[in-house]
Amino acid sequence: MKTIKNMTLIDDDDIFVFLTKKAIENTSLVELIRVFGNGLDAINFLIEHCKDLEALPEIILLDLSMPIMDGWQFLDQFTKLAPKIDKKITIYICSSSISPSDVELAKKNDLVSDYIIKPITKDKLIDLLKNIIEEI
């Protein structure tokens, strides 16, 4: 069975991260899950590893509201970095924000595949992972 080799969660909510990691681990669809509590740590990791395709994730679940660097700031930096990365990275925003302006901004960003409102159900998470696996 095909799997996702590398996935990244960028979220400062420890409960969401714990539950999401457990749900993903129980599917056996993802080999490695990296977690960053803010966008700055995540973007720094991507910059450092932009030529190391094995270290780069296939999928990123990105929260919007975080300290140090929020999700929007991360997307701004990632937009500049993306041309230097020779790997398709699928980004899903996972946010508790139901603000129509946040949803609209996300839909306008070509790097964002979807906007998922928390809490994310296990079924939705499994569907999302299976769709990514089909694209790989």
UniProtKB/TrEMBL annotation:
<dbReference type="InterPro" id="IPR001789">
    <property type="entry name" value="Sig_transdc_resp-reg_receiver"/>
</dbReference>
<keyword id="KW-0597">Phosphoprotein</keyword>
<dbReference type="InterPro" id="IPR052893">
    <property type="entry name" value="TCS_response_regulator"/>
</dbReference>
<protein>
    <submittedName>
        <fullName>Response regulator</fullName>
    </submittedName>
</protein>
<feature type="modified residue" description="4-aspartylphosphate">
    <location>
        <position position="63"/>
    </location>
</feature>
<dbReference type="GO" id="GO:0000160">
    <property type="term" value="P:phosphorelay signal transduction system"/>
</dbReference>
<feature type="domain" description="Response regulatory">
    <location>
        <begin position="6"/>
        <end position="133"/>
    </location>
</feature>
<dbReference type="Pfam" id="PF00072">
    <property type="entry name" value="Response_reg"/>
</dbReference>
<dbReference type="InterPro" id="IPR011006">
    <property type="entry name" value="CheY-like_superfamily"/>
</dbReference>
